[in-house]
Amino acid sequence: MTRFDLIVALQLHGATQAAAGDQLLIDGSEGEIVDDPDIMWHVTRRKAEIVAFLAGDWRAALRALVEREVPDRIDDLIEQFDERAGIYEYDAHLDRQRAEELAYSEIAETNHCAGCRD
Length: 118
Prior knowledge:
- The chain is 64% helix and 8% strand.
- The protein has 118 residues and is mainly α.
- The chain has two domains: 1-55, no CATH class; 72-118, no CATH class.
- It has a two-stranded antiparallel sheet.
- Strand 1 and strand 2 (23-27) form a beta hairpin.
- The longest helix has 19 residues, at 37-55.
- The protein is globular.
- It starts with a helix and ends in a 10-residue tail after the last helix.
């Protein structure tokens, strides 16, 4: 289950998500969410990534994703993130926030992070 799939599953249970510092706030039909062990397992496993994602901290979201899935590639993938964000920012004339979002999405959704799709 990808981060996107998890957020959709939470929404299908009527839940909304928000980040408050390093906390993940889930509001909705709590009984339904807690009663679904698959969703709770993924929420627990992906908490740091989801919090960073919701806060728009793309570097932290990628770091959490890579540390969980392919920790031996963290330096390489963070370097690729910085390079891609720089390309998007300067060559495509995007603001840094959008450039980092695109870099995060590209790395998280490609074979550069093959285990990240579980």
